[in-house]
From TrEMBL:
Organism superkingdom: Eukaryota
GO molecular function, one term: GTPase activity
All copies of domain OBG-type G, residue ranges: 64-291
Keywords from the named record: GTP-binding, Nucleotide-binding
Nucleotide-binding keyword on record: yes
Gene3D superfamilies referenced in this protein's UniProt entry, alphabetically: 3.10.20.30, P-loop containing nucleotide triphosphate hydrolases (3.40.50.300)
Cross-referenced PROSITE patterns: G_OBG (PS51710), GTP1_OBG (PS00905), TGS (PS51880)
UniProt keyword GTP-binding present: yes
SUPFAM superfamilies: P-loop containing nucleoside triphosphate hydrolases, TGS-like
Pfam families from the UniProt entry: MMR_HSR1 (PF01926), MMR_HSR1_Xtn (PF16897), TGS (PF02824)
TGS domain location: 291-367
Record's protein name: Gtp-binding-like protein
Length: 369
């Protein structure tokens, strides 16, 4: 473990020493690839149980899982207690929470599972503190809330982002538009979309990274101006792309002028967990970032059930996806569906399993006889 961490530290030192220019671009790309491989070994070597450990094996419940991450004593425990009613010990001293505390709150008919993860510290990705288990659980979340103290420097934000990135969690990013097709022979072919200019990485850098991963026969197709980090992420193939909201807590202790400065932080919500200030905006933003939709069911001959919507991720909001949320066998029994709502031109309209549903549509499934 120490050896891997030491090797990573050596590469980081060499990268910091190396000047960034065209001549060193390939060398830096190679160093990044070596570091990514060492970090993978570090994670896999210690975390084969999948981010578990005493108090960390929390079963998923509800429609989505949201993780609270932050430095000690920023107010995560208070936030969890106020939102869910689940008691998570809060105190003025650091490291109060030593295990993963789950709680659930209801919003727009959905059940959102909140996890209060122990205070993250710098160096978590290298195995310090309980950072490994924290980030292991964070990888299973649909959304991450990074909780920051309005009274503390915003450098804490960057430290936490760096820790999460070190564990392959990409915040508020999309997977890079790179396709790698491995072949038995033919060498390495680098292809780019028409009129695409690659300014972040040369062909030599691409080749040196591929060589480090022993990719000698492949077509690598770039659809966007990707960086060396993007290419490494695609080759590694174990990155998770997670939306993130920065919850800036304790705004009751700062001035209006300071609050206006914080407005420049993207993806942020200011709150006072202690006083329950601005919880409505926080819950609405969580809902938006989770990108969930509500589908109401309508049994034959009855009015729709508006009390218990079926919650579906927008990315899986076809009739088939809706059926799978109810029962895996339902789509096979379905003849067609009747839909009322904004996703159809006529109300009701007969649709098939590939029809894309919108938020608050009403669906009636007609089964085969």
């Amino acid at each position: 473990m120490t050896t891997l961490a030491a090797k990573i530290a050596e590469i980081e030192t060499e990268m910091a020493r190396t000047q960034k220019n065209k001549a060193t671009e390939g060398h830096l790309g190679l160093l990044k690839a070596k570091m990514a491989k060492l970090k993978r070994e570090l994670i896999e070597g210690s975390g084969k149980s999948g981010g578990g450990g005493e108090g960390f094996d929390v079963s998923k419940t509800g429609d989505a899982r949201v993780g609270l991450i932050g430095f000690p004593s920023v107010g995560k425990s208070t936030l969890l207690t106020k939102l869910t009613g689940q008691f998570s010990e809060a105190a003025d001293y650091e490291f109060t929470t030593l295990t993963c505390i789950p709680g659930v709150y209801k919003y727009k008919g959905s059940k959102i599972q909140l996890l209060d993860l122990p205070g993250i510290i710098e160096g978590a990705k290298d195995g310090k503190g309980r950072g490994k288990q924290v980030i292991g659980v964070a990888r299973t979340c649909s959304l991450i809330l990074i909780v920051l103290d309005a009274m503390k420097p915003l450098t804490h934000k960057r430290i936490i982002e760096r820790e999460l990135e070190g564990f392959g969690i990409r915040l508020n990013k999309r997977p890079p538009d790179i396709i790698i097709k491995r072949k038995d022979k033919g060498g390495l072919n680098i292809m780019k979309s028409q009129s695409l200019e690659m300014t972040k990485m040369s062909d030599d850098t691409i080749k040196s990274i591929a060589h480090e991963y022993r990719i000698s026969n492949a077509d690598i197709y770039f659809k966007s101006n990707a960086s060396a980090d993007d290419l490494i992420d695609v080759i590694e193939g174990n990155r998770v792309y997670t939306p993130c909201i920065y919850v800036i807590n304790k705004i009751d202790q700062i001035s209006i002028e300071e609050l206006e400065l914080l407005d420049k932080v993207p993806h942020y919500v200011p709150v006072s967990a202690k006083d329950e200030w601005n919880f409505d905006e926080l819950m609405e933003k969580i809902w938006d970032y989770l990108d969930l939709i509500r589908i109401y069911t309508k049994p034959k001959g009855q009015i729709p059930d508006y009390e218990a919507p079926v919650i579906v991720p927008r990315g899986h909001s076809t009739i088939e996806g809706f059926c799978n949320r109810l029962h895996k066998a339902l789509v096979k029994e379905m003849k067609y569906a009747m839909v009322w709502g904004t996703s159809v031109k006529h109300n009701p309209q007969k649709v098939g399993k590939d029809h894309q549903l919108n938020d608050e549509d009403v669906v009636q499934i007609i089964k085969k006889l």
